[in-house]
Amino acid sequence: MAGIAFFAPDQGVYDMAKEVLAENPGNISLLKKIEGGPDAVAEARKAVSDGITIIIARGRQARLIEQYTNITVIHIVLTAQEMGLLVMDLKEKIGKEHPRIGLVGDPNMFCDTTCFDQLFGVQLFRYYLDEGYNFQKVLTDGIFEELDGIIGGADVLAYTKNFRNDNIASGYFYSTMESVRNAIIQAEALYQAIQKEKSNSVRFAAAMEGAVNGMLQVDKKGAITVMNHAMELMLRQSITDVKGKAVTAVLGDMDKKEVEKVLGSTKETYCSIACIGRERVMIMMTPIVIADQADGAIISCNKIKRPVSADETKRMKDQYLCGYIAKHSFSDIEYLSQGMPKTVQLAKCYAISDSPVIIWGNPGDEREEMAQAIHNHSLRKSGAYISVNIAGLSDEAQIDLLFGKRFLNPDSREQTKGALLAAENGTLCINALDKMGTRTQYFLNNIIQNNTLLYNDLDRIQNVNTRLIGTTTKDMRKLLEMGLFRDDLYYAFCSMALRIPPLRERKQDIERLVTIYISHYVEKYSTFHVLTDNAKRILIEYSWKGNLVQLKHFCERCVLTSGRRIMTDRYVMELLEELYGREEQVPGLEAGNRNMEEADRELLYLTLQKYNGNKTLTAKALDISTTTLWRRLKKYGID
């Protein structure tokens, strides 16, 4: 037996339900009259064991079935017409113009009675029963003193009759054909929806099992709920091993923040690359959208490359032992540099490809960190990462460095591989790409186009499987226009270009980095120093042409040479001027600088007068060196 059960609380409801079902039985397979709450629970449990999926019930019976079973319950709700008839009948019994009537029962039984006072000329008091259905607690002597009549179920009315000797007017809940029919229609609609959902679930499960790629389903919290057989083979774990676990714990290469973005949005998707065992897979995560809200997600894992061979595994291990590893990831960059989310997102897209990438920026920025993050986010993350700088090298020296000494001179006894082959199956980062010589450009372009290394003796050809990343601080288009860079090599690199915004364009990053660096060096040197708000403002507005490197080392110098715990704006400005010169000052601070210089000059003059021109005592009083004092006296023209 399967379908819907109808539990009637009295003979009247039973007869009406029987009449409705005679017209169209639908999916109701059980109709039963049940008196009393405990009997309803026992019958509900029996119905569930027989395959019933929905129960129609009323009042206390419905509440108890919901409380003690897991089955879906449809409440028989008294309609406005039925409730209106009850109120009018009781009002007539009471015989008053505006009687006070109490409505006692389960809140799920009643329609909206907000306007009944105005519609029927009564004062309606509502006494809703909780899960314990303790109507004795509600029906106190005080309530009876206030009310002219009570509407309730059989138990409520029996208790009222025994409690009051004067037989307070009462009205019994009775349903008409309307509420019975409404409950049946609602149950049928829900049953059809459940059956459709079951059908969809079966089809979805069949589609998942039939898929050759691994598939997972997660709930809105990111916990695994379903996994197909292909995914079990990839993970070498069954669904029972991983069900309920966070998907980021099972697939460790997935970015936790990106997963949270997908689960919190209806439009976000997430794409990444991961290694599962010896398989390299493309992970695609798409939200399941229900009623304009993400209600979980589907994750597919597609194999995109052959398994790593034993020889390749050994070669990768040797490369790792040689120190050819990338230490930085996108999470490192996102922690320190939150002011360039579009750049990071673009870099993640580039990581999926094997094509060359060029990273353009400024001295001291995150170009190297970005290159390492691209490598660690790519299919090549298990391979070597080698970074070389070709600035200052001759054309021949660049060729030797990149391709090996035997590339141009086959008779050379030098057996060392060039950086290109040393990074086989990994990534080679070439810094100062703008300094590359014309011959080196020619050979590198041939390798990019053909994926082979043709030695000078023409007898040896070496296949090359190395991803190239170039970095520069120059505008490569200008070099192209000047004929200093090959056009074909330019287009090979610049189709995937990244620009690292300078630190001066990321004020929020400067503020965070100052806090991080100062805290780091205070802890490192076991000191205690803090910046004033004005000092921090000066650092935030400074140009920082050397970007992170300049800022980091400046913060270290601040901590090391500060003679006081409080690092003031004057101390910071003097140190900036001492290290980098006045030409580095930010125009927006010029007015403030002038005011500070005037105050500084006056302080020097007054202190010098106080000590009768004694430079040593003056320097000591100002807590500066005599050298600094002489320089400032000269600066302000004080004799």
UniProtKB/TrEMBL annotation:
One of its GO terms (molecular function) is sequence-specific DNA binding. The keyword tRNA-binding does not apply. It holds the Pfam family PrpR_N. Residues 333-560 form the Sigma-54 factor interaction domain. One of its GO terms (biological process) is regulation of DNA-templated transcription. SUPFAM superfamilies: Homeodomain-like, P-loop containing nucleoside triphosphate hydrolases, PrpR receptor domain-like, PYP-like sensor domain (PAS domain). Transmembrane segments: none annotated. Keywords: ATP-binding, Nucleotide-binding, Transcription, Transcription regulation. The keyword tRNA-binding does not apply. This is Sigma-54 factor interaction domain-containing protein.
